[in-house]
Design a protein that fits this description.
The protein is 33% helix and 25% strand. The protein contains 6 helices and 7 strands. The radius of gyration is 17 Å and the shape is elongated. The two termini are 18 Å apart.
């Protein structure tokens, strides 16, 4: 089997996370329509997208171990996407004020040549403080998290927005649950920094 490891994502956040545990991998952009398509739950949507991303790259690189991941944020059943700009970020954070937002981070590790497919879903609950308009504005001006679902970066200044976070893996909220990924890769024979 090939030792090639590919992250099916061009996300700088997922790339930086995987680099914590593995020094030898590449990133490729998957072909994936991320539009919800009748998925019954946000978790199901995240799993479908992670699997689709992994399959997109795995089909072109059948000997490689491919990691596909996706995250879906849900506020009272409504999916929160990446805000894209300041105005949408203000709306998102205002809607989240004083409430809980659920983040579902799915991972699919796939190798086409031997039909390997490992799936995982991580659930993180972010409990927001009551956010004043001034706090929202100051935070957004400082961090500009317009490419992040939920309009914050938990690994940065975004922690000032939270009352608490319920999670088994803090890296999942950033975009890739490294505890599970590291274990799955080691069990699949991939050499990591720590192994």
């Amino acid at each position: 089997m090939s030792n090639t490891l590919i992250l099916a994502s061009t996300s700088k956040y997922r790339g930086a996370l995987l680099a914590r545990i593995c020094k030898d991998f590449t990133q490729q952009a998957p072909i994936c329509d991320e539009t919800p398509a009748g998925d019954p739950t946000p978790a199901a949507l995240a799993k479908r997208l992670a699997r689709t991303k992994a399959a997109s790259i795995s089909s072109q690189n059948p000997e490689a171990m491919v990691i596909g991941s996706d995250q879906v944020a849900s506020l009272s059943g409504v999916i929160l996407g990446k805000p894209g700009d300041h105005a949408n970020a203000v709306k998102q954070l205002s809607a989240c004020s004083g409430l809980n937002v659920n983040f579902y981070t799915a991972v699919c590790i796939r190798r086409e040549s031997d039909n390997t497919e490992l799936m995982h879903i991580d659930h993180t609950r972010v409990c927001f403080k009551t956010l004043s308009p001034a706090l929202i504005e100051n935070y957004l001006q400082a961090e500009k998290p317009y490419d992040c679902a939920g309009s914050f970066k938990s690994e940065g200044l975004g922690v000032v927005l939270f009352d608490h976070i319920d999670s088994v893996d803090p890296t999942a909220l950033i975009g890739l649950p490294l505890i599970w990924v590291a274990d799955a890769l080691i069990k699949s024979g991939v050499k990591l920094l720590s192994s």
